[in-house]
Write a structure and sequence with these properties.
The complex is a heterodimer of chains A (about 525) and B (about 300).
Chain A lengths: L4 H23 L5 E6 L18 H7 L4 E2 L13 E2 L2 E6 L5 E6 L14 H13 L4 H4 L2 E6 L4 E6 L6 H6 L9 H7 L1 H4 L9 E7 L3 E6 L12 E6 L3 H9 L5 E3 L6 H8 L4 E15 L9 H10 L2 H7 L4 E3 L27 H10 L6 E8 L2 H16 L2 E8 L1 H9 L5 E7 L5 H7 L27 H8 L4 H18 L2 E13 L3 E2 L17 E2 L1
Parallel strand pairs in A: 1-10, 1-11, 14-15
Antiparallel strand pairs in A: 2-3, 4-5, 5-7, 6-7, 8-9, 9-10, 11-17, 12-16, 12-17, 13-17, 18-19
Helix pairs in contact in A: 10-12, 16-17
Chain B lengths: L1 H28 L4 H6 L5 H10 L6 H13 L13 H36 L4 H15 L2 H15 L12 H35 L2 H8 L4 H38 L5 H10 L3 H29 L7
Helix pairs in contact in B: 1-12, 5-6, 5-8, 5-10, 5-12, 6-8, 7-8, 7-10, 8-10, 9-10, 10-11, 10-12, 11-12
Classes of the chains: A alpha+beta (about 525), B mainly alpha (about 300).
Main location (chain B): membrane
Subcellular location (chain B): Cell membrane
Protein name (chain B): Peptide ABC transporter
């Protein structure tokens, strides 16, 4: 074939026409659909009991419901703040070991799988106890029995005054249809589960995302927008461009200093929603490694880190941590409420004095591993500079995120930053990061207690166990406060800052409620699109 | 011919075996724990141990290796450690996107590159020749990912002519989505093929039989296309094979820039999350393509050049 001038002109005309069709396709997106771009390669599961990837929970949050949950856009800071959802009322026995739930009548499952009854709740809870990612959470559940079609009784092995927070409002206890599970089969159910939420699953595409439509037989107020597309764009630049071009309406933000400012510079009308606190950024001090086995060196470390400056650098996403919990969480500490010796104000001179008293007048040098992920590396680079002024020469070795976590789990780090999101259930962070049973092991078989607290030096195991078996909420909180104070005395784990989970959305999307706190996902049933 | 084919296939098997072994070993040497990547850093030791057992990661390495090789021989590449989806399903979902991108890029590269080479050769040392040489230089110098980002920002973000990401659904939308990624890859192909065609054609046009054709009064178009270009295509066809391989590997970066599904993106995501089974499956596909393309090029060479014969 030869390409002459006429062929060339024909080709150009065809290309132009194709582009014009494309332009109209790109801009003619349905107004009745909210598209959110999430920071991962593709969805893994839609069964809430199998969830292992945070972004997948955006779809499950719309499809499924628990028996009770806090109001949209916030955490429940106390048991009385939980609202009825699939249960209309509940009660706790005096010993906090038996919880009885009365179920809402007339709730329909998606795709014609019938009414939700106590059989479905029993099935969901027992399935979560036997298989899935929440077996540790469910380990305290001794039994779940139906008492008629609309009542369920849960008995626990140990008291749990916070059962609504620890278990009922967890992903694994989103109620699914027993009938659908039996008909669809366990394997297919992983990506095709059936719930009762305001949106139902239309398509699960492991490459592009999860597609939902409004559930017309929803028991409550129907969702205002007809469709939701949870799309997956792992690359931060591609995700940002998708928002700016209008291809998607909302994106997961990049949690790095200056990112919010840069997006607002591009488009000042973009709306930013943040959960406060979001992640708890903590710093594990390895008590098995010199010189950090010395309390004075750890105290010097505390005086050397300007925690207010760290959170300020991450503004508006950063927040201050005095202890291990944010001050508005139970039992968060405020600096002014602490004894003088546990306040550790930023004071590099005092840090140098403490180092000298500990036998290190010329300062100390050490290596620390760090993840290259933006939130880790930016925080640790700030800390590195602060430490340098106080005589700590921290040689940061920044590497791959997956390798970083594996190294931490193999006890290879000296000062390990950890970022995890927690609800207002203080014992969760203690169990994961301070409990002696969670001590890190060199062979990788240990847990997230990278400091060896409770093993190398006495820890807070007794206090945690007492808190877990408390039969009233006030005692529980008092014991958790004791844990916080003891940790400030021993300094195995330093609260660095909080870092909000952030979504940027096009101003034509209104959520219908303000986002104040909560998990890294929120419901879109009240949202509208202009 | 059949013997030649068998010989070449015989060469391919150890190559594939070596690639698979290297990938298996490399992934195990690389620091990182697939169980942690799958369950998150907040996972408890019991959950991690149960995951490793369920996915067969707790057995000795040699046993994992033989399980993997056995799976390859029976066309069972295992399941993704993260989503539990069969690797073959993931490959089947992604491969068509990579193939269509590679083919579209090759088509655009050939359509642009060969005519450019002819124009340059027939206008040696004149303005069109200088232009083509400059274009080739730029084409070689600009990396795929940079050019892709440039095109994306200009034509998708600023002008809004093309979608920012994805691959489209129906035919028109797929063509619309593939245009810029294919153009990105085709730019380098056109530069390479243009340069190769120019050099090859210039060499042929200096041969005695071309001078004879001209002396016999053949029209210039006939001299160039029938006597010149036809014979100049031999090195170009070899170049096409190399170009196809580089397009295939270049698709990895382009799939990332344009956020297109494909084997490249599947592999990159799997490497980041230490999804061993998917990495091994993805590399097997790439290696298979390389072997297949090399084999095809050898066969094409035998067909189009009678001087090449199996001894």
């Amino acid at each position: 074939m030869t390409l002459n001038r006429r062929n060339f002109l024909e080709l150009t005309a065809a290309t132009t026409a194709l582009s014009a069709i494309g332009v109209s396709t790109a801009h003619a997106q349905s107004d009745d659909t909210i598209r959110i771009a999430l920071a991962a390669g593709g969805p893994r599961h839609s069964d809430p009991n199998l969830t292992t990837q945070g972004p997948d929970n955006w779809a499950t949050e719309q499809i499924y419901e628990q028996l009770a949950r806090p109001d949209d856009g916030r955490f429940a800071l106390a048991p009385e703040e939980y609202l009825p959802v699939l249960a209309t009322e509940w009660s706790m026995s005096d010993d906090a070991k038996t919880w009885t739930f009365k179920l809402r009548e007339g709730v329909q499952f998606h795709r014609g799988y019938g009414e939700m009854t106590s059989d479905d709740v029993v099935f969901t809870y027992l399935k979560a106890k036997e298989v899935g990612t929440g077996r540790v959470i469910m380990a305290n559940v001794a039994d779940v029995v139906a008492n008629g079609p609309y009542e369920v009784v849960v008995t626990l092995n140990a008291p749990d005054v916070n059962f609504l927070g620890t278990t009922v409002f967890s992903l694994n206890t989103n109620i699914v249809s027993k009938k659908a599970y039996e008909e669809i089969g366990a394997e297919a159910f992983a990506t095709d589960a059936v719930g009762t939420g305001p949106y139902e699953l239309v398509r699960f595409d492991s490459e592009s995302g999860t597609y939902l439509k409004r559930f017309e037989d929803y028991w409550g107020e129907k969702a205002k927008v007809g469709n939701i597309e949870c799309l997956y764009i792992a690359d931060t630049t591609a995700r940002t461009l998708a928002l700016i071009s209008g291809q998607v309406d909302m994106i997961e933000a990049v949690r790095a200093p200056g990112w919010i400012d840069s997006i607002r510079q591009r488009d000042p009308n973009m709306q930013v929603d943040m959960t406060v606190p979001g992640s708890f950024n903590t710093l594990h001090v390895n008590l098995n490694r010199a010189p950090f086995d010395n309390l004075q060196v750890r105290q010097a470390l505390m005086h050397a880190i300007d925690r207010a400056a760290v959170s300020q650098a991450l503004a508006p996403m950063g927040g201050l941590l005095v202890g291990l919990q944010p001050d508005f969480f139970p039992p968060g500490l405020k600096t002014e409420g602490l004894p003088e010796e546990l306040r550790y104000p930023y004071n590099p001179e005092r840090a140098r004095e403490l180092l000298a008293e500990a036998g290190f007048p010329d300062g100390v040098s050490f290596d620390a591993l760090c993840s290259q992920r933006e939130d880790y590396s930016s925080t640790m680079l700030i800390v590195q500079e602060q430490l340098r002024l106080a005589g700590f020469n921290m040689n940061l070795i920044i590497g791959d995120h997956t390798a970083y976590h594996a190294d931490n789990r193999s006890d290879k780090n000296t000062l390990a930053m950890h970022a995890s999101s927690y609800p207002p259930i203080p014992t969760q962070i203690y169990i994961q990061q301070l409990y002696s049973k969670a001590e890190v092991k060199a062979d990788g078989s240990g847990g997230g207690n990278y400091s060896h607290y409770g093993v190398t030096i006495p820890g807070v195991d007794d206090l945690i166990e007492q808190a877990l078996s408390a039969a009233d909420y006030d005692t529980y909180l008092e014991l958790c406060r004791e844990v916080e104070l003891q940790v400030l005395r021993d300094l195995p784990l330093i609260g660095l800052s909080t870092l909000s989970y952030t979504i940027v959305r096009n101003p034509r999307i209104e959520l219908g409620y303000p986002v104040e706190s909560g998990y890294a996902r929120w419901r879109l049933h009240r949202a509208t699109k202009a | 011919m059949a013997r030649y084919l068998l010989l070449r296939l015989g060469d391919a098997i150890p190559t594939l075996f070596l690639v698979l072994t290297l990938v298996f070993v490399a992934m195990r040497i690389l620091p990182g724990d697939p169980a942690l990547a799958a369950l998150g850093d907040a996972a408890l030791p019991e959950q991690l141990a149960e995951f490793r057992e369920r996915m067969g990661l707790n057995v000795p390495l040699w046993q994992q290796y033989f399980n993997f090789l056995g799976g390859v021989l029976t066309l069972d590449l295992g399941r993704s450690l993260l989503s539990n989806t069969p690797v073959l399903t993931l490959i089947a979902q992604n491969l068509p996107y990579t193939i269509e991108l590679t083919m579209a890029a090759m088509l655009m590269g050939i359509v642009a590159g060969i005519p450019l080479g002819v124009v340059a050769a027939t206008n040696r040392n004149k303005t069109p020749d200088t232009g083509v040489r400059l274009f080739s230089l730029i084409g070689y110098a600009i990396p795929d990912f940079f050019l892709g980002a440039l095109l994306l920002i200009t034509f998708s973000l600023n002008m809004g002519w093309f979608p920012i990401n994805g691959a489209g659904t129906d035919f028109v939308s797929r063509v619309h989505h593939i245009f810029l990624p294919a153009l990105t890859l085709a730019f380098v192909k056109a530069a390479f093929l243009g340069r190769l065609t120019r050099t090859s054609l210039l060499e042929v046009l200096g041969k005695d039989y071309v001078r004879t054709a001209r002396a016999k009064g053949a029209k210039e178009n006939r001299v160039i296309y029938q006597h010149g270009l036809r014979n100049a295509m031999l090195p170009v066809s070899t170049g096409l094979g190399l170009s196809l391989l580089s397009t295939l590997s270049g698709s990895v970066a382009v799939e990332l820039v344009f956020n297109r599904p494909g084997i490249g993106r599947l592999l990159i995501d799997a490497i980041a999350e230490r999804d061993y089974a998917v990495i091994q499956g993805g590399v097997l596909v790439f290696a298979g393509f390389v072997v297949l393309i090399n084999l095809l090029m050898d066969l094409v060479y035998v067909v189009i050049d009678p001087r090449v014969r199996v001894k």
